[in-house]
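Could you please consider the sequence and fold following this short note?
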Amino acid sequence: MKKFFIPFIHLFSVVLLLGSLILLHFAPEGNDAVSFLKEKSYLSSSAFDSAISESVNDIFDYIDLRDLFETKGTLDLNHTIAQSETNGATRSYSLDYLIKYARSMGYYLNEKNEIMEDGPATVTKEQDEKEHQIRVTYRAYLPDYQPASPADGFMSLGRLAKEALGYLAKYYAIRSRYFDRGSNFQFYVNYTNGNNSTYYNNVESVSAEQIWHLGKYIGTDSNSLEVKSNLNTVPSNLVPLLEARDPYKDGAYVFAAGVDTNFPYDDLYKAAYLSYSNRRQLTFLGLFLFIFSAVLTLTSFVILLFDTGRNEGRELTLYTFDKSPMEITLFLGLLWFYLAKPLTVYFFESLVLAVGNFPEPSFFSALCLFILRYFLLLPLFLSLVRKYKKSTLYSSSYLKRIWKLIGTYVEASKFARSKTFSYILFVFPNLLAFGLILYNGYCFVHRRSLLHLLFSIILLFVTISIDYYTYYISRGLQAAVNEQVKAERLKTDLITNVSHDLKTPLTSIISYVDLLKRENIQDERVQSYIEVLEHKASRLKNLTEDLVEASKASSGNITLELHPIDYNEIILQTLGEFQEKLEKRSLQIITEVPEGSILILADGRQLFRVLENLFNNCAKYALLGSRVYITLTKREKDAVFTMKNISEAPLNISPEELTERFVRGDVSRSTEGSGLGLSIAKSLTKLMSGKMRIEIDGDLYKVSLIFPLVEKEEK
């Protein structure tokens, strides 16, 4: 139940918040709610002062229109309203004639005294403009009008009739508002000049003093410049209007106008008072609802954030949509945010066609846009929150997959010949494709080109496919290399562990064989057995030591002390060590070593171990009575030691296989040896930054050791 209660409360609070915004927008009628609520009542409001100013203007308009349309206080339709001149002849137009002509064109006044043009017509506007053109020289409602030129004043009779009808409509509106039925607005205007007096009022027998005692009033006279009033603002044009309507030009005047604030009559002032009171109450209600709903919305939203993704047991769970990558959620949110606006415009256009004009369309359009965006973006946002709580926001995202792709490619590029070239080969095409996709997307948005959209989609698909394929190639390469490294490490660890495990019993065997030799055993047969044991134990000891040495060399677990060493001297020294052994095989040594020292950077002990293995192999496997060529060559940046001899056994093997562990040139294995010599030599040479190369041409065996020369500092 709680699973649906909090979302329902949040939905209700948002709807309530929107309702309060509607109240605060419409209740003040164009004013902001804060300024509207600061006004204590309608009588102290700016709307009331504006109504007073409008009524004052209506008074003086009535003074003008009464003299225009009335005779002795009654409407006179025979008043001459306008005159025209045609071919030197003057023609007068009465109010009655212009009303009838206006009626013939379909003009009439409705109940609000507004001019309507949809009545039955016997004269069309086209006929009026074509056949009834006149030159107006006089209009009673514009007494100061004078034609500026012979061409001035030309108009159709229908336009003149409509113009006169407009003034008549205004006259009727003022009569209806202040005279024909009771009005809460009262006025008194009196002009005097000696014994002559003219006055205007809308209430019989009312005086200026009586009006000044009403709830709200405004008054003045010609004897004082002071305007007496209890209004917040007084019409600034009151005195100019009074003086302009003075029929005596230099007479005295008294003006008084006011509003009975008890509102005994049902007029516009009472209606405005009641409307203002209702709107004020609605504004207070809207403000209360706004504060309440805002607090409720914020509170329910926070609770929703903490509660989303929790089941009845308060355990974190994800919905089916939450398992999608983060980028899809963000893309849907941005897409909806963009599409909501045209959908709102389309909805309101359809609504106007269905129900007609809509009040405040921009306000309701903005409100509808907010609703469309909020109620879809909120679930998407909560989905991101649930992913964050479950710690899958990044782990399930495309960003992580892309980063993993790049990381895999970077790791795989370590095994490439040129890492920089590998990076460029991966980064540059992707940046180029990304730029082209952005450009085509820009063209689609601004040029409305579907071709650019199609091209960007195809380019995106191709780029993702290539990157995906590259990722799997890189991952496969990295996995293969890791597997190979792991296998080599396991092999090395196995050899090391087995060698150490063999050392202990082997040491005991050698010790007991030595003890047996010290016993005075006369039996020759037993002595031969002891000699075999000693020989085989010694060979096994050498093999074990070679295994440990090979394991250390291949894993790099050897401490090297690199110093400048005379390459020439160490070669000759090693040759001297093996001179006797080589002579027993009747091998003729032919050396070609330059005089003088050739300095290389190496570990003397380990380099001797490498040379020892090479000379030992030569003594074992070289053809009996053949020649061995030993040369040392100094080049620009390195020195090359070369040993060449003819193999006694056929070399049906590749140079690469010879450097593998437990591989011997004697396939029949009739000679003694562990098959680790060349492997150890190659590993040690590599550790000292040197290179060992083996070449085989038939039975010709050639091995080379290349070391960089020591760079001498010139003083």
